[in-house]
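Field: COMPLEX_INPUT
Field: COMPONENT_COUNT = two
Field: RESIDUE_TOTAL = 542
Field: MODE = joint
Values follow.
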Amino acid sequence: MIDQATIEGIIRILFVCIIITAAYIISTRNLLTVVSVYSLQSLTLVGIALALWSLDGSIVLLEIAVITLISKVIIIPYFIATIQEKIRIKRDIEFHYLSPTTSLIISMALMLAIYLAFTRIMKDSPNATGGLIFFGAVLGISLMLMGMMVTFSRKRTITKVLGFLSMENGVLLFGMFVTELPFIIEFLIVIDLIILVILTTILSVGIDSTLEDYHKRLHRFHLLEEEES
Amino acid sequence: MNLDFLLYLAINTLVVIAVSPLFVSLIKKIKARTQGRQGPTVFQTYYTLIKLLKKEVIYSPNSSRIMRVTPLVTMAAILVAALFVPLVFVPEPVGGIGNIILFLYLLALARFFMALAGLDAGSSFGGMGSSREMSISSIIEPTTIIVFAALAFVFKTLNIFDMFTLNASTGSPSPSTLILIGISLFIIIIVETSRIPVDNPETHLELTMIHEGMILEQSGRNLALMELSAAVKMTVLMALLINLIVPFGLMTTLTLAGLLIAIVVFVVKGSILAGIIGLFESSMAKKRFFQLPSLFAMAFFFSTLIIIIAVFS
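Field: COMPLEX_OUTPUT
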């Protein structure tokens, strides 16, 4: 069995990987790499879950690792990659309010704010600043907010979905370190279902558009059906 | 100033001058290989420098004294900056040698004179190169300062020598911090040495050149000095990254056998890093000028993160 200090070291390195992937998802314009980076981020989460499992041996963590591996490392990225191949969009260069650089700077401020907030909150708890649980919580929330920023600053639907998925990764990270696990699993599954629904509707109607366009297209699509029937 | 330090001055300068053309050619070789070409030999830069040293220097009739002084000033500034980053052997620091802030200003001095020389000859290429270089450096400078500030926060010292000694002996920081610092420094290397997402060192196409534009009017041994100073600058920044991330092989007490081993180990580590830079360059296209800040923002982001963690925990 590996000792505890080594595993904690590994988890810290995985934290860094998550920060890097999050920053990459925020700032890149190439859609193909966003998908693979998202899949890498999920894989990092699997690694963290496995490391935590080897620390405290709770079987739920192992389950989470398996579920994440199957759904978020393999199925969902494969799904999105297939769509991308069909619609032949390679780049997302339209932004609503924030350019990638601004988003990075804002997310830095967000992380600082969350860091300070959590220092306040966890001041009296035994595992105060510097502990793994503390960093896990801070990173989880930050990842969530960074995902949210991707969701509202990008114009392409496919990047919005990826932002949402990365937000959900943040929830999972936070859940693994802080809250009760069974609840969070339920939450996770529900969100995954929603994503699946979003993906399938988008898949059926066409994703190669901005959200405004997409509404029009949806409308037209229904009209078309009515005319036919 | 003791004997060790005097020896250090000689060893470090000799090693950096001897080794830097090798790294430049290695990067070129790797890039050629990834493009399916044979590429020049790894000693090509040495041959080019020797050839240039034998050639006559020609000045444009419009050029002033700046043009004559610049190669010397640049080379001198970069060589002094090279003394700040021990390549193979770390002695006790003497005086201000090794101070991070002075190191940054020496690099800035070299860059300032290079830009002046670009303007001095009165050719439009040089002016364009200088103006681009200055706009880029005004964006990259804050990032560089933040990255070095992060280094200072992590190691709790402003002296590069102390950082290396700490790193080689006991107090090396956690690997997670090192990864973040490594990425930031890598981006700094790419930008400071005018590599591909920022500038293309191989082209003389007017739309893309930045660094080459500024030295277009140089000739003969002056050109050799400019080329060599660019190579030395790259090696120094590479050495900073290498000796912080993998301090293995770095000497703290001077012995002859240890010195030879340290030089070999450094060349091996440097060649690996040069290979990584070459592959990185081959995998990327040059970025548009206005997209460059997103590259710097990455380094800025990671370094600020390190500072936040270092300050608040």
